[in-house]
Amino acid sequence: DLLCVLSGGTTWTSLTIDKVNRRWTTLLGWSKEDVVGKLFTDQMHIDQDELREGTTSAQTALSALLSQEEPISIGAANANQAMLEERFCCKNGSTRWIAWNITRLS
Length: 106
What we know:
Blueprint: E1 4-7, E2 16-20, H1 22-28, H2 32-35, H3 48-53, H4 57-66, E3 81-89, E4 95-103
Antiparallel strand pairs: 1-2, 3-4
């Protein structure tokens, strides 16, 4: 399983990566030094039209979690969780679709 710990954001575009596990670095090709302290959105492959329109599932779910509203996501167990599928950028320039869960830990 991939593991990534995010913090520091009041909006979904300002979340930074605090920690990643070895599987994250193996699957996506980035070293910990490449990603820790960087914006989480830099790891995601976001279609610019979707981003501009605010329609990405990650944008919707992360914004809802940060504002403590119930996320609009199929399979979300409660207001502190969301289940998503998004594209992530690999270091070699390719992208990978990853199904992932977000849980607010505050």
